[in-house]
Amino acid sequence: MTTTSSPTTSPTASSPAAAPAAGAALFGTVLVANRGEIACRVIRTLRALGIRSVAVYSDADAGARHVAEADVAVRIGPAAAAESYLKIEAIIQACRDTGAGAVHPGYGFLSENVDFARALEAAGITFIGPGVESLNVMGDKIRSKNHVTGYGVPVVPGIAEPGMSDAQLIEAAAGVGFPLLIKPSAGGGGKGMHIVERPEDLEATLATARRVAASAFGDDTLFLERLVTTPRHIEVQVLADNHGNVIHLGERECSLQRRHQKVIEEAPSPLLESLPDGAGIRARIGEAACQAARSVNYSGAGTVEFLVSDAAPDEFFFMEMNTRLQVEHPVTEMVTGIDLVEWQVRIAAGEELTVTQDQVVLTGHSVEARVYAEIPERNFLPSTGRVLVLDELPAGSAGRVRVDSALVEGLEISSSYDPMVSKVIAWGKDRTAALDTLDEALAGYTALGIATNVEYLRLLINDADVRAGRLDTGLIERKMPDFSFRGVGEAELVAAALYAMAQTEQQYQTVPAAGPWQRRDGWRLGAPAPRRISLGGPDGGVATVEVSGTAGQGRATVSVDGGPQRTASLQFPRRDHVELTLDGDATAYSIAPVYTGTAAPGRDNPTPGAPASDAPLQLFLGNEGWSCRLEVLSREARLARVLAAIEREEGAADPAVRSPMPGTVVSVSVSNGDTVEAGQVLLAVEAMKMEHQLVAPLDGTVHISVGTGDLVKADQVLATIHPVHPAELSNAEDAIEEAVIAMGAAE
Q1: How many Cα atoms sit within 13 Å of 403 on the Cβ side?
Q2: 261: left (phi > 0), else alpha (psi -120 to 50), else beta?
Q3: pLDDT in tens, 530-584
Q4: How much is the pLDDT for 540?
Q5: DSSP for 454-486?
Q6: How far is CA 120 from each of CA 87, 90, 296, 417, rounded to the nearest angstrom?
Q7: Mean per-residue pLDDT, 602-617
Q8: Helix segments in 510-556, DSSP class H
Q9: Which residues of 508-534 are buried (b: 16+ CB within 10 A; e: fewer)?
Q10: What value does the mean pLDDT take over residues 473-486?
Q11: How many CB atoms sit inside 10 A of residue 626's CB?
Q12: Which of the 8 DSSP states describes residue 279?
């Protein structure tokens, strides 16, 4: 296998493997037993092959993109994955109802479930994946590690025996050494993996790891591995048919991870590319991956994952084999021109590989960024919401940028599933060009209405160490404190204020004239009065923009929170976009208004179902991959925010412990009346396949208002801390009275 660079275009159509020769008859109908972006991606290839596609969906996904894109869609159950996407009987019944002769499992859910493969086999339905033997051996990390050592594949030192209790693992940990890594035997994707630095932390961490593993994979078996310091995560893509042919398609570097979850992936590895003997190491690690596949008579597309020490890159250790398609498979497709899903289907249908190892060529470089519905600056808290404005693929990027996405405008992001919503993949003639293209694509990525990690992704790929290829799996944790996230500035406040004024003016143009006394546009004899628009951010803060002039005329004088006066104008070039000019500087924003209430027909609301002129308004603004949400505050809402700030001492912790998002309480660590300390874990909430531990914000006595198994809403109070010595605000009544007087003056 060789590595080359193309000066202009992606090699997606130039590989000898891009168009497999015709062979055995393919399937007439294939059911995709998954959801989200991977279901859409598989359906795309099925359509290209002329195969009828069947989507399955839960109640939460009735309006999902994969449902609309498939030829047929079948409901399989409620939102909970255990009652829908993980329900084997429902999937098989959907196959029978639609005549599907094969199932593509995607990744996650049932993709590596040996019982699912057996059930399909018994029903006479083809599993587009490896055989039962491969799933049985490689689907268990303990069994797979012990298995491949007999075939000359090096493994990480550790203890990997089935059925070990916590006490046995604690006893064995001394022999493994600290720091160590707790890993679940089932599943993948970094879920349930925990680093333990000290022996005294092992017992509590094992309990958490078992709970997460049981919830995510239905199996709480754990094992321990020595933690390789400054490790790089390098994986090899393999393809194997049912005629004895096994090849590898080069490696991917997946070292940029957070909590063992990959964030940025690329092909080929910059580590191997930088080494004088990189080609030799690539050949050795590729052959080790092929040997692992041969050891279980593997069939289809699979990935063998290795740890490589940055200090000794010629040494590599087997971690696991993923017996399925990987999230990051597009980077391999971009540099090889091989459609992995197409080959999965063809191999499952009995075709023989038509490409040999020496025909595999890596052309250029590709980098993928995972887009999550989450808030990085709040410790990557998953986010829900409705997609209001969507623009994922920049103009002119065809051939260089690919977006695999589950998003459509109007889609409600559910808390029931993983928060990854799309992937942006870029290709370039070399690594620098690929990173530049990815940065450009992310800068043009817009998904208003939900919080995403796009700004964080741009900060990450522009970090000096990342650009230089100095990667390891701990880099993100080290770099994160240094990242400076953009906040709401004066430009955003002015744009929001002028937009809100324009909306109000447009509404009044449709209202029958009722005389000047019923209008709220600042009319008076002489010059119009300045308008004051109060805006609130999600942090509870308040800002006031004073506007002289009319927004509808496109020019005004503005000041923010009593600051200097500035000249501003707002233009509306097209739907969902505005252009702000502030003191001569122009900035373009994507924008989405959301009225959070409606009113009955009347003077201010002549159209039934339309928002009233005084309905609460939220504005979502986006610019260069960054977005924010601002609320246009009524007098009452502004006063409530001001009073809330007064009633709490500056810097004081909120005694209420709230759920960060909708989810399920999975554990409660304290009882009512217990005395707790600040930082002590009170309970844990599971949402979007993650467990969130909630801690006491201050010392005091705790009152718990929920129990294990309870379903909770976002911002619901789950516990309250009563301080041992409650602090009282001095002169609170005077402060509140002053705030009320000031409010009246401001309005």
Answers
A1: 22
A2: beta
A3: 899 999 987 778 999 999 976 555 578 999 999 999 999 999 998 899 999 999 9
A4: 78
A5: HHHHHHHHTSHHHHHT---TTHHHHHGGG----
A6: 13, 12, 20, 24
A7: 47
A8: none
A9: beeeeeeeeeeeeeeeeeeeeeebebb
A10: 92
A11: 18
A12: H
